[in-house]
Amino acid sequence: MSETIGVLVVDDHAVVRRGVVAYLEALDNVEVAGEAANGREALDLLESLKVRGRPLPGVALMDLMMPKMDGAEATAEIARRFPEVRVVILTSFGEVERVQAALENGAAGYLLKDAGPSEVAAAIYAAANDDVFLDTAVARRLAQKMRSPQSGVAALTSRERDVLVLVAKGRSNREIAAELVISERTARTHVSNLLGKLGLRSRTQAVLVAMREGLVAPPS
User: Fold this and answer.
1) CA-to-CA distance for 204 and 108, rounded, in angstroms?
2) For residue 110, which phi and psi values (nearest 5 degrees)?
3) Full pLDDT tens readout for the chain, 220 residues
4) Does the residue 219 lie in any domain?
5) Of the residues 116, 144, 172, which one is the last residue of a structural domain?
6) pTM for the model
7) Calpha distance 67→62 (Å, rounded)
8) What is the dihedral of CA 207, 209, 212, 218, to 10 degrees?
9) In CATH, what number is assigned to the domain containing residue 56?
10) Helix (H) or strand (E) segment spanning residue 30
11) For residue 191, what is the DSSP state?
């Protein structure tokens, strides 16, 4: 990464925030853009930056269980109001339903709080690059639990299936375009079409469907 990534840290535990901030400050190309104790504070901070004409952080590192507004609801609001901010869930809860709700609301990825420093860095860099990063253990559970929509992968064209596989491998639209020798705009259109056919709302969900359908192998 050559550009500095601003990261907003959202967690209701001050000690956790301090630890995360201290770690982020040691990362290359990462700058802590602010802290918030819940989803409402995070939205207020982003709105304040926007009103003042200040750059928004590229990534919000978001806890799930918080008072006033939890991480899943905050993620949906950020995706709606500040789509340039990518949300990565960082939670101590491994409950599939809670994490799945966050992904459906637009989260770019998620980690458990026992994740290693390299995983936290990888998740932030992936989100900033419009990719996804999934915790290995919960990704397996989500892939097993997630039911494929009625239309299913069979409804996709061969090109859309190719694009789905590349999305599941973490390729950006630009990388998909280069690999399939198509324009970036066409790649973006294919991604939008396959998400629509599968009834999905995010690339993260597409990754889980691809794993469930056996198009790519789950993380080892």
Assistant:
1) 6
2) -155, 155
3) 568 899 999 999 999 999 999 999 888 889 999 999 999 999 999 999 999 999 999 999 999 889 888 888 899 999 999 999 999 999 887 677 777 777 888 899 889 888 888 888 999 999 998 888 888 877 777 766 655 444 478 778 889 999 999 999 999 999 999 999 999 999 999 999 899 888 888 898 899 888 888 888 876 5
4) no
5) 144
6) 0.66
7) 13
8) 0
9) 3.40.50.2300
10) strand 30-36
11) H
Angle CA 19–25–26, to nearest 5: 100
Whether residue 220 lies inside any domain: the answer is no
Q: Check whether residue 99 and residue 154 sit in a common domain.
A: no
Do 113 and 171 sit in the same domain of this protein?
no
Number of folded domains that form the chain: 2
How far apart CA 124 and CA 212 sit, in angstroms, is: 25
| CB neighbour class for 181 (10 Å; exposed up to 12, middle 13-18, buried from 19) | exposed
Residue 75 in tokens: 């993620």
Q: Rounded to whole angstroms, how far apart are CA atoms 114 and 6?
A: 23
Q: Which domain holds residue 23?
A: 5-144
